[in-house]
Write a structure and sequence with these properties.
Helix content: under 10%
Structural class: mainly beta
Largest sheet: 8 strands, antiparallel, barrel
CATH class: Mainly Beta
Radius of gyration: 18 Å
Strand order of the largest sheet: 1-4-5-7-8-9-10-11
CATH superfamily: Lipid/polyisoprenoid-binding, YceI-like
Number of helices: 1
Oligomer: single chain
Number of domains: 1
C-alpha cells in the first residue's frame, strides 16, 4: 500500500516506508571489506575498498533496483606489497577490469528490517547471480543504512591463483551501505 502525504512537498512512500524515488550511495558513510583465509588457513587477509559509488530507485509499488560500483584499485590492506599483489592479474587485474559491479534486480523487505536482495555481481568481466540477506541498521523516510555479509567463491570469477595451496575457503564480503534520497 502506498501512502500519499498530506503535505505535497513530502514524497510518497512505498510499502517499505522509504520514500519512493531516486537514491544515492553516501560513499563516505559506506564500506566494503573483505576477509579470506590464507597461509593454509593460519592467517586471515583483511582489506577494504575505499572508492565506492551507487544509486537506486524505489518505485511506488515497492520495487527496488540499483547499482553498487567498487573501484578495484582502491583495495587497502595496510600492507603495500599485498595491495600490489591483489591489484595484479593474479587477483583483481585492475588494469583490465577497473571496477566490480553489483546490480540489484530485486529487494524484498519484511517488517523486522531484513531484506532479501537479488541481483548480479560482475567481477573480472564475469557476471554471476547472487542472493543475500541485508539488515536495516537505520532508516528514515529519506535515508537507509543496510548491513550484510556475503560469501563469495573467488573461483566463480576466475580468481584461481593459489601458490602451493595457500588460499583456502571462501571470501567473506562485509558491506555497510548508506543511501539517501535525492
Amino acid at each position: 500500500m502506498t501512502s500519499h502525504p498530506t503535505n505535497p512537498s513530502q514524497p510518497p512512500t512505498g510499502p517499505s516506508g522509504l520514500s519512493a524515488g531516486s537514491w544515492v550511495l553516501e560513499a563516505t558513510r559506506s564500506s566494503v571489506e573483505i576477509k579470506h583465509k590464507s597461509v593454509w588457513g593460519l592467517a586471515t587477509v583483511r582489506a577494504a575498498f575505499t572508492r565506492l559509488s551507487g544509486e537506486g530507485e524505489i518505485g511506488l509499488d515497492g520495487t527496488v533496483h540499483g547499482t553498487l560500483t567498487i573501484e578495484a584499485a582502491s583495495i587497502r590492506s595496510k600492507q603495500a606489497k599485498l595491495d600490489s599483489h591483489l591489484r595484479s592479474a593474479d587477483f583483481f587485474d585492475v588494469q583490465r577490469y577497473p571496477t566490480f559491479t553489483f546490480t540489484a534486480t530485486g529487494v524484498v523487505t519484511d517488517r523486522a528490517g531484513t531484506a532479501e536482495v537479488t541481483g548480479h555481481l560482475t567481477v573480472l568481466g564475469r557476471t554471476r547471480p547472487i542472493t543475500f540477506s541485508a539488515r536495516t541498521t537505520s532508516a528514515g523516510p529519506d535515508e537507509v543504512t543496510l548491513s550484510s555479509e556475503v560469501v563469495i567463491d573467488r573461483n566463480d570469477f576466475g580468481m584461481s591463483w593459489n601458490r602451493a595451496g595457500m588460499i583456502k575457503g571462501l571470501t567473506t564480503v562485509t558491506l555497510t551501505t548508506r543511501f539517501t534520497r535525492r
